[in-house]
Amino acid sequence: MKISILTLFPEMFHGVFSQSILKQAQEKKVVDYQVINFREFSEDRHQRVDDYPYGGGGGMVLTPQPIFDAVDSVKNNMNDDCKKTRVILLCPQGEPYSQKKAEELSQEDHLILICGHYEGYDERIREHVITDEISIGDYVLTGGEIGAMVIADSVTRLLPGALGNAQSSITDSHSTGLLEYPHYTRPAEFRGLKVPDILLSGHHKRIDEWRHEQALKRTYDRRPDMLEKQELSKNDKDYLQKMKSNEENG
């Protein structure tokens, strides 16, 4: 996969892409990151990329020309292997980002992430350049760079070969529709706090059942809204009903 990021502050990405899983994924040639300063595409002699909004109002608006030309340039320089390109605008009005969306994007050949600043984008960018608008939460940031980092990270770890253990991403919170179950490691007892006996039993079927029940419990306790969208088995429903009864009975 290739991930191209259009930004006014490319330096923000240097540390992120040179550490941990993202660095390793590049070294394995699982993904190729490209960070582009779209100011370089401005036809203004001072390389301006923003202007006052028509009709008045506070703040400045990103002009269409630099972004149109930057996207065209990135697409024209792609090799034939990258046939599918999604052009994503990071903005507060976009679709709320989710693990499901990350999984969808991980199937693409090429992502272009556009990081905005100032008051917003000229509407012609939304109408004629982009394929998706994404928001990483119901709050406003200074620019789209942090959102682009979130998308790049969450998508990269889903790519085959990015993680040392391919099972890691499958059992992550939200990947199964539930929050992830608790984890324990050595020592088996620390300051009088013991690892649950079931995890030391070596009985893999019962361990899997325990983990699933713990994932249900954690989701019920912390994100009950997620259970409304989940297809629950009869055993799941019985377990949740038992938890509710225990709560009601103190």
* CATH level-1 class of the largest domain: Alpha Beta
- If you compute it from the alpha carbons, what radius of gyration comes out, rounded to the nearest whole angstrom? 23 Å
Might you state the CATH topology name of the largest domain?
A: Alpha/beta knot
Secondary-structure arrangement, i.e. CATH architecture of the largest domain:
3-Layer(aba) Sandwich
Low-confidence stretches: none
Average of the residue pLDDT scores: 93
Total E-strand runs = 10
Features:
Trp Operon Repressor, Chain A; 250 residues; Alpha/beta knot; three-stranded mixed sheet; 10 strands; five-stranded parallel sheet; alpha/beta; 2 domains
Task: Give an overview of the whole structure.
With 250 residues, the protein is of the alpha/beta class. It folds into two domains: 155 residues, SPOUT methyltransferase, trefoil knot domain (Alpha/beta knot), CATH 3.40.1280.10; 60 residues, Trp Operon Repressor, Chain A (Orthogonal Bundle). It has ten helices and ten strands. The strands form three sheets. A five-stranded parallel β-sheet has the order 2-1-6-5-8, sandwiched between helices. Strands 3-4-7 form a three-stranded mixed β-sheet. A hairpin with a 2-residue loop joins strand 9 and strand 10. The longest helix is centred in the last third of the chain and has 19 residues. The mean pLDDT is 93.
How is this fold's topology laid out?
Layout: E1 2-7, H1 14-17, H2 20-27, E2 32-37, E3 50-51, E4 61-62, H3 64-76, E5 85-96, H4 99-105, E6 110-115, E7 120-121, H5 123-128, E8 132-135, H6 145-156, H7 167-170, E9 189-190, E10 193-194, H8 204-222, H9 224-227, H10 234-248
Parallel strand pairs: 1-2, 1-6, 4-7, 5-6, 5-8
Antiparallel strand pairs: 3-4, 9-10
